[in-house]
Specification:
The chain is an alpha/beta fold and 292 residues long. The protein contains 5 helices and 15 strands. Helix 2 packs parallel to helix 4 and helix 4 packs across helix 5.
């Protein structure tokens, strides 16, 4: 096995020559401990715990300095219904201020999730590049998952942590491109009992699904709700117990991509636009939702 030291893909920088010999001989990059090798063989997440897990829904309609998000309550009710059907412990929070929201995240992260399969958070609010809005102030989107990753929440280590974000990610419009070989309709829309230990990356077992690709607007209808949350709710209702999670989320993306197109008569800049959800997955296994 090649034991040359690993390198990082970053601009080279100068470093002083070592004055002391290394503390240990170089062992190579591939971990060969029995526990690590056993973990690689586990293809599916363990869903045999007593509880499915906690699901937090943060629904923002009213803001101190942003426009009201009409239609979000319909999204809240639909996704709540589907998560309850999956046996999640669903907790809904409406129009929280920044400090209230962050305190709630910390509070839930400190709970004991030992008997839970996974954790889910659904955020519905206004957003822009890299940030989201509480009722009163702006905060960085990474603050949603920081309390739950790595050692911050020990009872969720090795378990899937799923974040679904309905919010704009910029000010670009997606004009779409014609795919001539198909025709699509559009919808008008304003374990083992023995203890095993191995080291995993801090951000392992996290999935974030955004309603829109980076830099783009995310659409919501004041009557029918947002394209993304409604599509997610439909797919969970129809396929949650049958499809693997990433397969299901691909179906969500396909539904949003093909079945929705903005209808804003009289505004050429905003009319006839599309939306493409985006999945960022650091999951290390397949996730299924068998019936509890």
């Amino acid at each position: 096995m090649d034991t040359a030291p690993d390198e990082i893909d970053v601009k080279p920088f100068s470093s002083p020559s070592p004055t002391e010999p290394p503390a240990r001989a170089h062992r190579g990059s591939v971990v060969s401990s029995p526990h690590a090798l056993a973990a690689v063989q586990e293809e599916n997440y363990d869903t045999s715990h007593r509880n499915r897990g906690t699901a937090l829904i943060f629904n923002h309609v009213n803001f101190e300095s942003n426009a009201k998000r009409e239609g979000s309550n319909k999204d809240r009710d639909e996704i709540k219904k589907e998560l309850l059907q999956l046996s999640f412990d669903v907790r809904v929070f409406n129009d929280l201020k920044k400090q209230e929201l962050l305190a709630k995240l910390d509070e839930v992260a400190k709970e004991d999730h030992t008997e839970s399969d996974c954790f889910v958070l659904v955020m519905m609010t206004h957003g822009q590049d890299g940030s989201l809005y509480a009722a009163d102030k702006q905060y960085q989107i990474a603050e949603l998952w920081e309390p739950f990753v790595g050692d911050a929440c020990k009872t969720l280590i090795g378990k899937p942590k799923l974040f679904f974000v309905q919010a704009c990610r910029g000010t670009k419009f997606d004009k779409g491109v014609k795919l001539t070989k198909i025709a699509t309709d559009t919808v008008d829309a304003l374990s083992s009992s023995s203890q095993r230990t191995c080291v995993i990356p801090t951000m392992a077992d996290v999935l974030v699904m955004y309603s829109a690709f980076d830099g783009h607007y995310s659409w919501r209808n004041p009557t029918h709700g947002s394209w993304f949350i409604q599509s997610l709710s439909i797919e969970l209702n129809q396929h949650a117990h049958r499809k693997e999670l990433l397969q299901l989320l691909t179906s969500v993306s396909r539904r949003v991509a093909y079945l929705y197109e903005s209808n804003v008569p009289g505004n050429e800049q905003m009319d006839g636009k599309k939306q493409m959800p985006c999945v960022v997955s650091m999951l290390t296994k397949a996730l299924y939702f068998p019936r509890k």
